[in-house]
Fold this protein.
Amino acid sequence: MTVPVQSLLFADPREAADLAAFLGRLLHYDRAAAVRLQAGGGDALAVFGRPPSFEVLAIRAARLARPETLDVTVSAGELLESLDVSGEGPGDLPAPVTGPPWTGVLPPRGPWREQAGLPRPDALRAALDAAVAEFRTRDEALPEELRTRAERDRIGREIWSRPVGATQLPLRAVHAAHSLGFLRADPGFPVSLFAAGGWLRLRTPFGSVALRHGPVGGLGSLALTVGRH
């Protein structure tokens, strides 16, 4: 008989601290955020979240001190409170919650195919800065009768839905990666774009963002690989 996982013990304190930082960023965008946790019998834990402002899934991986098998959705706030960033002992796993609809629709296991055409990280950051500046300029130019939430949302959707470089990745995915601390402006920083089953995935050493694009194939979960995510 399998004993349900009651606590999470990380391989070192930095893993717990990095996960805590990720959860804090998610909670900045949604104080009631939930996260789905998956471990497939090894020492890799995948944490999925969905910051509502960006319409993407954010994935952060952490290395556990021992192999675990679990698949559960919990409160991001409760998980953050339970983490022991000192590394002195395990943190209690919060009670499961009924997750929002996105928790049942995760990216497929693969195969993931690397996509060409993604600009360098410094060019991605320049594109983000230009998009923010454009939004501000267009917002300030709106006449008073059009200065509404709906019109601002329309401008935002137009800007952030633009493809990045010679890819099909919308700029909002890059914005999400930057806002969640996954993306650095250093031109030597490794960043890659992958596609699988109607999904796109922007991956960096600190985490990934994934989103549906076009016809969606089978559902499942990402293969768990842990670097410095």
Notes: The first strand starts at residue 7 and ends at 8.
